[in-house]
Amino acid sequence: MRGRRGRMEKILLGAAVLTAGLLQAGHAGAADLKIGLAVAMTGAYAPYSEAEGARCMADRLNKAAGANDPKVELMIEDNRSDPQLSVSLGQKFLDAGAQIITGVPFPDALIPMAQTAQPYGATVFSAPNTQLEMQQAGLDNFIAGAVPDPINAAATANALYGKGARTVALMVSPDAGSYSEKLPEWFGEVFEHLGGKVVGKFNYSYGTTDWSPQIASIKALPQKPDAIHICAVLPDVGILIRQLRANGYDGWVAGCDAFDDKSLEGTVGDPKSLEKVMFATHGATGVDGPIDKFLAPV
């Protein structure tokens, strides 16, 4: 993403969500489409809440609907970034007649929600879910609006190698499952296949505010990494970038779609620190929309 003051590299991964498909996911003949959204209004995933986007689109669809068209009714509650609460809220929505439900965008919430929804003939939809476990679960009532993590990893590795990076350190955490633990490793596999080298791998936990142990380990590497790859959320990654720059690291920091929270620049502080930040995110391309116009000069 090119800012007015700093410059970040954003890779857009094509992902189109077809509203018509979701409308068809409702019960046949239903007058209205009821969608139950257990979204993170508080907790670690609050910056990525789908609530406002859903309200905006539901309002647009309802205004455009004809007299005989189904209307969209939203039921929205806070899942507090808690998978188990998402499952409980999903049951509440189903009991209230929801045809589509969603929760925390991770398998420990979405798989049991889909299993619970199946006898109701309901669908589980997750706009931001990317984890392979959802495809491997063999669910026939789940729809994702984003590309799987290995594609994210491969796209970022290709783009970063194309920028001249040849060595990378990986940051991994089990806290968000394969998203935060395996995606960096998949990135590393593709990066090495291209001719690069993984020179270190370091553990961290979500919620880290003091990155000095990891930074000290990176500085102690025999071979300085041209890049650091991490899949973490805000404010964690913003704090990491700020502390890396303060400790003299001037290489690339690469990541995935959680970097696209609008608070990144404010958390980092100095926009110049973002000049060598790259991340992959999602968007619909090839439809002559704003993203196509953004990418046109690239």
Could you explain the architecture of this structure?
- Helix 7 links the parallel strand 7 (167-172) and strand 8.
- The chain starts with 7 loop residues before the first strand and ends with a helix.
- Helix 3 (83-95) packs parallel to helix 4 (107-117).
- The chain folds into 2 domains: 8-12 and 149-283, Response regulator (Rossmann fold, 3-Layer(aba) Sandwich); 18-144, Response regulator (Rossmann fold, 3-Layer(aba) Sandwich).
- The chain has 298 residues and is α/β, with parallel strands linked by helices.
- It has helices at 19-25, 51-64, 83-95, 107-117, 132-136, 149-162, 178-194, 212-219, 236-246, 264-268, 290-295, and strands at residues 8-14, 32-39, 71-78, 100-102, 123-126, 142-144, 167-172, 197-203, 227-230, 252-255, 277-283.
CATH level-1 class of the largest domain: Alpha Beta
Distance between the termini: 11 Å
Overall pLDDT level: 90
Q: Report the biggest beta sheet as strand number plus sense, adding barrel if it closes.
A: 6 strands, parallel
Oligomer: single chain
Proportion of strand residues = 15-25%
Question: What secondary-structure arrangement, pairings included, does this model have?
Answer:
Blueprint: E1 8-14, H1 19-25, E2 32-39, H2 51-64, E3 71-78, H3 83-95, E4 100-102, H4 107-117, E5 123-126, H5 132-136, E6 142-144, H6 149-162, E7 167-172, H7 178-194, E8 197-203, H8 212-219, E9 227-230, H9 236-246, E10 252-255, H10 264-268, E11 277-283, H11 290-295
Parallel strand pairs: 1-11, 2-3, 2-4, 4-5, 5-6, 7-8, 7-9, 9-10, 10-11
Helix pairs in contact: 3-4, 6-7
